[in-house]
Amino acid sequence: MSGGRVVPGTFSGKVRAHFRRLRAAKPRIVVDPAEAVQLAGDRIAPGNRRAHRGVRGHGRDATAALLVGAAVTLAAGVAGVGPAAAEETTADESDEELVFRVGVLQDIDNLNPFKGITAAAYESWALMYDTLTSYAADDFAPVPALAESWEQSEDGLTWTYKIREGVTFHDGEPLTADDVAYTFNRVLDGQVEKTNYGSYVAQIDTVTARDDTTVVMELKKPTPIMERLAIPILPEHIWSQIDDEEVRDYTNEPDADPAGGIGSGPFVLEEAREGQFYRFSTNEDYWGKVPSIDGVEYRLYRNTDAMVQALKNGEIDFADDVDPAPFAALEGEEDIEARSSVYYGWNYLTFNAGAELVDGTPIGTGHPSLQDAQVRLAIHHAIDKDVLVDRTLDGRGEPGTTIIPPLYPEHAEPEDPITYDPAEANRILDEAGYARGPDGIRTMPDGSDPLVYQLYARQNSETSQTTIQFLQGWLDDIGIDSTAETVSEGRLYEIAGEGTFDMYEWGWSTEPDPDYQLSTFTCDQFSYEVGSGTIYAGLNDAFYCNKKYDRLYEQQATELDPAARTEIVKQMQLMAYEANAYVVTEYYDYLQAYRTDRFTGFVPQPDPDGAILFQWGVHSYLNIEPVSDATASGSGDDSSSTMVVGGVAAAVVLGGAAVWLVARRRHHTDADVE
């Protein structure tokens, strides 16, 4: 999912009452005619990053034809990008530059690290900014980054970080301990800043710069996450010009005021065209290993088929988050390596279990039946996860259960998992008093408010759309009617924040430390209101609030014994699972492909079977090298003419508002994305 976007005020109760009684003939995935071209062939990825990353929200997409396939195919036939747009994508590029071109399906929702929530956003920040520590490529262990060393006091309440000397920001200004202290204090004192990074500073009391190279953090309680503080370090001389209100709208783009995108990372943001491309040049003054390439370019595509064709044609060097069917077709292709990796991403369905602001004020249009845990349990029984893995992942994954994926040792597997059993689902609803009406649609126990749900799928994700179509059929089997609509991830995050939904599909990618992912189910991650009527979304899109869960979250955050902490983390996962806060539908493999005649030296994370891009860190970007000068310099020579003349390829480069935002992370988040 996502974090920190402004969402409009909530709908009135009168609109809600009318909304509940609307029903549409199947198939019921609604496509706005104005979006027909934009939707053609779309898919989504995170998120942890995600995200995630929560986003990164990544996520795999189905290869089976959708119920809306005919309309989408027709739209794809007329979609196009004019010559000017195609020229923009390749303008001002020197044939001598060794640029690593990455095809992606997810747009960066926001370059501002306090506002973005998609995996693509987190990946861009990793290029631009440094953090105090990083994650090792082989096993996710904490390793030095800006902090070349650190130590803790005997009581664990004081942490001292030694900051590298001679580090400069992209504008030439020195990076000192003052910038580190400023960044952390901005998160500690801010509100919107806490959405993405509040969990990292929850146990920090004060942060001070003792001198130019020494940062001291005093804690409220000892915590095990002080070696994993994944907060981008910002330049104080720029961000101090942006106050608490301005930060909500600050784009952090090169033409922003003050100038944006300035960090200390290995790459410098040069140009950002939403829905089209993002260009980064190599930071020749980087304190660490200077990349062997001249820059990185992300090119956006509407679907995997177009992206894969661009890879075959040599327009791009790398294709990220490939759909299963095109991926299978790439296996054995000359000069192309198709790599299936173990991953930390997962897809899910969420329920609106009672949307509220953090102060307890009810918001949104959620159907009251979903506040009943028995209804959520019944729906979970009605979902066939094996079918989803087969149809959306082509079997390249496994059915999901809890929110920490099996890649990590903290994963908890239920002893008695909820299985696909529509008869049991109907029995639960019958016993709970949700009787069927004359039309076969169940009502609330008092006979009011028919169970008609509003569902949402992600506009650029075939996985999401296919999942929602299956969900509609499964809901129908248990007497629940529904309407469904496809929206962009940006819009979906607004809908989540305002609580104007019943169920939707999205995804997360989970950090190596479980703290962040666990924080997304805490009560203080509900939506919140600023001023009069402006609502901002937190990370808790299920609006699951359990005070015992929150107490366990605080406990794990201060438990220093790894085994004891793991037991708490597992207990929390099972609590959320048994409450059916989410239905984790699938853990997916990560499918990527690259041209072996262009670049070599990719570094997997974890070693040896992990992802080689969109990692926790920038390992591959720092280590890839051209296979030869000849192939490297010719990597993009014909891309402009191909995109203009090629028809199919031209049709799929995203333009303007046609963006694919993804999960969270959301850090994050999802096989289509983080």
Descriptive report:
It contains 22 helices and 25 strands. Strand 8 and strand 9 (214-219) form a beta hairpin. Mean pLDDT is 83; it is low at 1-94 and 630-674. A seven-stranded mixed β-sheet has the order 2-18-17-19-15-22-16. A seven-stranded mixed β-sheet has the order 10-11-12-3-13-23-14, with helices on one face. It has 674 residues and is an alpha+beta fold.
DSSP summary: helix tally: 22
What's the overall average pLDDT, rounded?
Answer: 83
| Secondary-structure content class | alpha+beta
User: What is the general shape?
Assistant: globular
The largest β sheet comes out as: 7 strands, mixed
Low-confidence stretches: 1-94, 630-674
Give the amount of beta strand, in percent: 15-25%
Summarize the structure.
This protein is an alpha+beta fold and 674 residues long. It contains 22 helices and 25 strands.
Topology readout:
Layout: E1 6-7, H1 13-20, E2 29-30, H2 36-39, H3 69-78, H4 83-90, E3 99-104, H5 119-128, E4 133-135, E5 142-144, E6 147-152, E7 158-163, H6 177-189, H7 192-197, E8 204-211, E9 214-219, H8 236-239, E10 267-273, E11 277-282, E12 295-300, H9 304-313, E13 318-319, H10 324-330, E14 336-341, E15 345-351, H11 373-381, H12 385-393, E16 397-399, H13 422-431, E17 452-458, H14 462-477, E18 481-487, H15 489-498, E19 503-509, H16 515-519, E20 528-530, E21 534-536, H17 547-557, H18 562-578, E22 582-588, E23 590-595, E24 599-600, H19 619-623, E25 625-626, H20 629-633, H21 639-645, H22 648-652
Parallel strand pairs: 2-18, 3-12, 3-13, 17-18, 17-19
Antiparallel strand pairs: 1-21, 4-5, 6-7, 7-9, 8-9, 10-11, 11-12, 13-23, 14-23, 15-19, 15-22, 16-22, 20-21, 24-25
